[in-house]
Amino acid sequence: MEQVEHAELTQEQVDAILAALDHAGRKLPVGAIEAVRQNKTRLIPELIKLIHREAQARCQEQESEGNGGFFALFLLAELRAVEGLPAILDAISLPGEGPFKLFGDAIHDVLPRVLVSLAGDRCIEVCSALVRNPAANEYVRWSSAKAIVYLAMAGLRPRNEVMAACQELLHEAIEKNDEHAVTGLVMSMLDMRPSEAAKEFEQAFQLRLMDEEMIDWESVKDHLKEGPIEPSHEYSDPPCVEDTVKELEHWASFQEPKPSRPTPAFQMPRPIPPSRPLPKPVTQTRQTERVGRNDACPCASGKKVKRCCGGRQ
Questions:
Q1: Most buried among 57, 147, 195, 238, using CB within 10 Å?
Q2: Closest among 308, 292, 290, 312 to 300, alpha carbons compared
Q3: Which residues, 6 or more positions from 111, have their beta carbon under 8 angstroms from its beta carbon?
């Protein structure tokens, strides 16, 4: 990929960079990612348009084989392109499996940190709206709850502020019998060991609004007993997306497939050797004299064999 530094990109070069992202396949497009970094002023608007176009195509039930929107999600977060947040919010608010068709496993793994990276001081407000949206995909809502918790766990916002926002959301979700919101909030809040939310948690389980395939009430009580923990205690990843290449280089989808074992060349089967006659069985000759049932028992009891040891056989 030709990179142009300190110069205005031509439309042809822009198209080439976007095409390299869109058709990356199993190879991570490091050159195109670096080109976006070096020409972010020119390319950030193009990444936003790319997400808009792909989201619109999904709305019209059109399939797309490209990966451009997927890489745009990471790059906009890395570059702190806050102007890209509305396009991302529209895309992740698509109904059904729409968000996964656009962004794949990034919805599970990276979306919370994308929201933290781009929403800034509005993160609680933005993510709360997603949690409250019953039409949104349940895992988008869960990731939005996790983004709010990230703020406390990374020390970006005071824990009491984050807890208050989560408790308010949980109270609303319980009142609305919103199982998806309740499950996402409970599972996310547990990272903070929220003993102050024990009443809401117990109520959620009593009303069967918590998906107990995720976690049972006894396990929740164990978490609540531990008390609050220090920020960043459990999160090894940074709260924001810092480097798209480092984020993705270990993903299985960008690993070169291992070469399969070569198929051995065809070989003619060896001829079966002619069968040989089996050897005659060897007759075993008894070396000791046979003892009859009416003979005296060898154990010297004075009884006949059939009345003594022979009778027990």
A1: 147
A2: 308
A3: 92, 103, 140, 143, 144, 147
Instruction: Enter the pTM of the model.
Output: 0.77
pLDDT tens column, 47-61: 999 999 999 888 777
Query: For tokens 């480092």, what's the residue?
Result: 246
Domain count, the chain: 2
Using alpha carbons only, how large is the chain's radius of gyration in Å? 35
Burial of 58 (0-12, 13-18, 19+ CB in 10 A): buried
Residue 313 has pLDDT above 60, yes or no: no
Is the CA virtual torsion 210, 213, 218, 224 positive or negative? negative
Q: Return d(Cα 172, Cα 242) in angstroms, integer.
A: 34
Q: Which helix (H) or strand (E) holds 72?
A: helix 68-78
Boundary of a domain, candidates 238, 259, 279: 238
